[in-house]
Request: fold
Amino acid sequence: MGPPMRLPKPRLYARLRTMPNLPHADIVGSLIRPPDLLAARDDVAAGRITPSEFKRIEDAAVDGAVAVQEAAGLEVLTDGEMRRLSFQSQMPEAVEGFGEFDIDAFLWGDWRGDERVGDAPKERPATLGVVSKLKRKRHLSAEEFTYLRGHTTRLPKVTLPSPSLFANFWSPARSIEAYPTLDAFLADVAQIIREEIEELIRLGATYIQLDAPHYPLILDPTWAAFYESQGLSGEDWIAQGIELDNAVMEGFTEAVFAFHL
Reply:
């Protein structure tokens, strides 16, 4: 066996020194979406309410998330990710080419729980897979940021998915005509996220979080086997992911980048 592989170090917190008063307490993931927002998502999809009615309910949910965080004394706020089906869904919602998907695209797996909640195995959806070249229909998170910025005097933070998180959407059976390799697909994903960061900074964003909770999954043999089925070992997969993360952040000195594992 050769020497241990040296993984590239992510350049994630280098710019925190530019904001010495930045608190180290803020929301990392989604806040629980209120029942009326969940019901409104179903209603607007079924045509029972108009998109403008849905937006009013969605805005109210964001207002509630802001109020909760401000009441808790946080100086860094998110919008609770109220406008998203999942923390990573704004990419396939805003970009053409991902094909059919629903919440199960983000929840499949062999989940284990204690005697109170039990196990929840869920198969990977058979229809999951990017089907054509990616084309952005709208910005992913610009609306989230501008609304949040306008509704608090505290520091707004916006979250974006790490590019390699979307390996889940590449399928040899469904994607190979659009993207012959996983690498080619992830390169386009990274470019879209980089363009999103550019737009967010133009709008005044100074604190951006990249979400990569898939990295620790490599420790689970089942997930490690899935990523290896995509053509990379666990170590190679993490190395490639970090390379993509660094690529989307490169040169953006105006913002602090946080990282969520």
Remarks:
- Residues 1-18 have pLDDT under 50 and may be disordered.
- The radius of gyration is 19 Å.
